[in-house]
Amino acid sequence: MKRRKAFHPDREVNPWAGPTRPYDIAKEVVICVVVMAVLTVALAVLFGSPDDRAVTLKQWATETPIDFAATAAAELDGSAGTASYGPPYNSASTGPSILGISPAKIVGVHVRVNAAKDFVLSPVATLPQNPAATLAISTFEQATLRQQQQWAAAYTKAVTAKQVQAVDGRVIVAKGNFGPVGVIVDQLVSMAQSGALDSTMLTQERFFSTDSTKPLLFLSDGSYLANRAAIDHLQGDQWGMMNETGSWPGQAWLWLYTMWYQVPGLSTSDNADLQVWAIMMGLTLVLLFVPFIPGLRSIPRWTRVYRLIWRAHYKAQ
To answer: The whole model's pTM is what?
Structure first.
């Protein structure tokens, strides 16, 4: 006699014996997609995007030329964020790590960025018929690395010590041993204020490009972008990932991700991004394997929450 297979309520369900009715889910999906596509296009045409326009290098250099000049000098002396970032941009550091493992170092440098050259020297070198810029670039590149850093550091120190003022958009710095750095930075400021730097940095590698990696990295090294973000409550300590223009608190479904950045220890950790990512990946795996975890998968059956969801059916029964 064939033994009947044991029923395991923790893993199995009884076959449905209730009423059924035909339902064309493919038809419903097509209707929903068409309706949403029409509404999306119509609303976009009528109202456009509610978001602010993209921040540009021209805005930065025009509104806060001193911050722009200080950041350019920091790129030259290697003290800016991008210059010391590490993979995937350069080898200046090993990048964030967790449990002694640095994923960035394992992946390596694959979006190579030379901050001094890409953000400052190469753009200024493209200025046509500008003997002052050409001579300054030539003098700087022929100097030793130590001398270059000394010139740039002296300029940065002068700006940080408030020995500087902006006059009609020009950055005037007190006299010092800056070498050609003063001329280079002054030319870069003028170039940015004219709008030429935005297009030059986009087309450094190819004429037609939509890769804004380098302009964004340059912007992020200064204070202008961070200050704009703070005004719109977009900083990390303001739960910024949850915000969007004109709709506070915005993407509320990201609360679980941004919450970890407010936890003491993580909020001040240099490896916070990697740590939060690891936590979220762990929680995602738990959610993914809920049907296979004994006890956890039985919670809906124990709580009988399904009777609340399907209350109309059970009421009819």
So the answer is: 0.74
Q: Is residue 186 part of a domain?
A: yes
Residue 204, token pair as written in the block: 């450094």
65 token code pair: 């030329």
DSSP assignment of 262-287: GSTTTTT-TTHHHHHHHHHHHHHHHH
Measured CA to CA, the distance from residue 73 to residue 274 in angstroms comes to: 30
Of residues 155, 175, 193, 173, the one with CA closest to residue 64: 193
What's residue 72's pLDDT? 93
User: What DSSP string describes 101-169?
Assistant: B-HHHHH---S---HIIIIIIHHHHT-TT-HHHHHHHHHHHHS-HHHHHHHHHHHHHHHHTT-EEEETT
d(CA 113, CA 99): 28
* Residue 286 placed within a domain: no
The CA distance from 152 to 76, in Å, is 6
Angle between helix 224-231 and helix 213-221 axes, rounded to 10 deg: 80
Asked if the peptide bond before residue 96 counts as cis, ω within 30 degrees of 0, the response is: no
Token pair in block for residue 317: 């029964």
Q: Which two tokens stand for residue 172?
A: 């005037």
Cα of 300 vs its chain's centroid, Å: 38
Please check whether residue 82 lies inside any domain of the structure.
yes
Residues of the chain with pLDDT under 50: none
What total of structural domains would you count in the chain?
1
Indicate whether 149 belongs to any domain.
Answer: yes
Amino acid at residue number 48: G
65-81 pLDDT tens trace: 999 999 999 999 888 98
Looking up tokens 């456009």 gives 48
Q: At what angle do helices 213-221 and 65-77 cross, to 10 degrees?
A: 100
Per-residue confidence (pLDDT) for residue 216, from 0 to 100: 92
Asked if 104 and 254 touch (Cβ cutoff 8 Å), the reply is: no
Q: What are the φ/ψ torsions at residue 202 (nearest 5 degrees)?
A: -75, -30
Residue 65's domain spans which residues? Answer: 57-230
